[in-house]
Amino acid sequence: MDEATINDRIQTVVDCFFGGNKARFAKAIGEPATSVSNVLTRRRSVPSALTLQRICTAVAGLSAEWLLAGRGPMCVEAGGACGGGSPYYDADFQSGADELWDGLRVAPAGRVSVPPLDDAGVWWCRQGDAAMEPEIGRGDLIALREVTGWDRFLVFGRTYAVVTQNGLRLVRRLCAGGRPGCFRLVAARSGCEEQEIGLAMVRRLFLVEACVRRF
Fold this sequence. Notes:
Blueprint: H1 6-17, H2 22-29, H3 33-42, H4 49-58, H5 64-69, E1 86-92, H6 97-101, E2 110-112, E3 122-126, E4 141-146, E5 159-164, E6 169-176, E7 182-186, E8 195-198, E9 202-212
Parallel strand pairs: 1-3
Antiparallel strand pairs: 1-2, 3-4, 4-9, 5-6, 5-9, 6-7, 7-8
Helix pairs in contact: 2-3
């Protein structure tokens, strides 16, 4: 058993699964924000049994034994991951969703479960423009996996999320370029012009593994 109090462990839940946002945590468990503040800020209020039950319900896979007594792992899901599925960040890729995911500095807004993609390397965000319509619409969810070694070998004809050295973010199909050391960014939408970009202009590359349509 660890030496942290139950209030400390609730704070850990807020930090890990709600990005430290007490208001979002309070809403998720159906408790007044003032009650949550008493538990987390003043650390004087002992949470009720109903509050603890609501916390375990709000965070799928959270271990009740860990929450109550500090025994065992925080999560009881395979691999120690609460919630199932892959993390979803409520932001457009074009607005910098990769910075939320990078290093897991911010807790995801939720999780998306598509069994073939439920692994640690995949994360989800939104497509922020219409350049890939009708294949991927504005607001659709996209599953991304970072590509390593892309400057040595890259499969052309697939759709990628590209981060350039000057901070631009695009979702495009990548095709072979007309010059050595370059490739073409091809949009699916009619009327969008192709762009050719040098490898040196690319900072990061993510493969778009899947798309979930926004209904």
